[in-house]
Design a protein that fits this description.
Elements: E1 44-48, H1 59-74, E2 77-81, H2 89-98, E3 103-107, H3 112-121, E4 126-130, E5 134-135, E6 141-142, E7 147-152, H4 154-168, E8 173-178, H5 183-203, E9 208-210, E10 212-213, E11 218-219, H6 228-240, E12 245-249, H7 254-261, E13 268-273, H8 276-279, E14 289-295, H9 297-309, E15 318-320, E16 327-329, H10 341-356, H11 367-370
Parallel strand pairs: 1-2, 1-3, 3-4, 4-7, 7-15, 8-9, 8-12, 12-13, 13-14
Antiparallel strand pairs: 5-6, 10-11, 14-16
């Protein structure tokens, strides 16, 4: 698997938070050459979001941030197409093809079939898909010459977050839930559950995980990535059942968990995809974010554009790991005092153990198993 020329370093090494974009596009097909792009550039990089949109404080926004960084640093032009419903995926891709995009990013596992079909129909356009490989109409992974998969083994980082949660909880219960039961969601939940189990094994405790049974691959899901009310209702249930830390893996739906956490003392949240402390705009919610399971999406997006503009594009998959800095957990920010120094040291050692292979974090949803 290719290692990107730049990577993000996370807790245990050094912390670099993904920065939320100032104002994401509001309509499909918006975009331009602001942010320092050369007006006469003949290379155009484009991006299609999934239904969460570019202002999701999560993976779509991280991808958009990387696109704008590429625009600024490479002097290219950019265009975007924001999806609000899966029925728009193919038409949004086609719109960008018609706009003479040289490179089209599709953000999210849900776009995999549309990416596969439209890439095959447009072999002269280069594609990169975040969080998946291309798929055929039946949902089977396929290798396409002009599609580069960008994936992240987030189970590794979620393992660390689960360990932190188990070592920080005061109730003995933590929880996680997803938006839709797809591999890029359940991989977080698998890693989180295993991290809790590891803490229990090491410390002889019995911290319980609500919302996900890894062995059965069954748990709690809201059914979409947009309805924050569902996220709040589910989180209300978890907190009322005694959980004091909840990890939503549901894009914008996670804001519902933050809303629930704000309603009572002693409720905390673990964010995903980006550093929620940095990306979430609600100042009252920031102090409730214990840590975040982060993907280096922005850096990966910019690096693929760098390769493409240098005629070095390839369809070789990239998988972000703890070792190459593609995944990690964020700093504890305002809650650092709640994470004992001994626990922080244990987490740093666990990261080293995962990198050197002493500990293997397994998930059926790992990119290595799905490619």
């Amino acid at each position: 698997m290719k290692t990107l020329t730049r990577s993000l370093a996370f807790v245990g090494v050094s912390a670099l938070a993904l920065t939320a974009c100032g104002s994401a596009p509001e309509t499909a097909g918006s975009g331009g050459s602001d942010g320092g792009a050369a007006a006469g550039s003949d290379f155009k990089a484009c991006m299609v979001s999934d239904e969460g949109g570019f202002n999701d404080k999560s993976f779509n926004e991280s991808g958009y941030t990387g696109l704008k960084a590429a625009e600024k640093n490479l002097g290219i032009t950019t265009q975007t197409a924001e999806s609000t419903d899966p029925s728009q995926f193919i038409s949004n891709i086609d719109r960008l093809v018609d706009q003479d995009c040289n490179l089209i990013y599709t953000v999210g596992f849900m776009l995999a079939p549309a990416t596969g079909s439209q890439a095959q129909a447009n072999p002269d356009v280069e594609f990169a898909i975040v969080d998946s490989t291309a798929q055929d109409a039946d949902g089977n992974a396929i290798e396409v010459d002009n599609v580069k998969p960008i994936s992240f083994d987030t189970a590794q980082a979620a393992f660390l977050a689960g360990y932190v949660a188990a070592g920080t909880t005061t109730t003995g219960k933590v929880a996680t839930y997803g938006g839709i039961q797809i591999p890029t969601v359940t991989i977080f939940m698998d890693g989180f559950a295993d991290g809790v189990a590891k803490y229990n094994e090491v410390h002889g405790t019995s911290v319980e995980v609500l919302g996900w049974d890894k062995a059965a691959q069954q748990g709690s899901f809201t059914g979409d990535f947009s309805d924050q009310a569902k996220g709040k209702a589910l989180s209300d249930t978890f907190y009322s059942q005694g959980a004091d830390i909840v990890m939503p893996v549901a894009g914008p739906v996670g804001s519902g968990t933050l809303a629930s956490a704000k309603e009572a003392e002693g409720r905390y949240v673990i964010w995903v995809d980006s550093d929620g402390y940095e990306s979430v705009s609600d100042a009252d919610a920031k102090p409730l974010i214990l840590t975040s399971v982060m993907k280096g999406i922005g850096a990966a997006v910019e690096d693929v554009a760098t390769d493409a503009t240098s005629d070095k594009f390839s369809n070789e998959p990239y998988v972000g790991t703890l070792e190459n800095g593609g995944v990690g957990i964020a700093p504890y920010h305002d809650l650092e005092s709640k994470v004992p120094a001994e626990l922080q040291t244990e987490v740093e050692q666990l990261q080293k153990d995962i990198i050197d292979g002493t500990i293997t974090v397994e998930s059926a949803a790992s990119p290595h198993n799905l490619s």
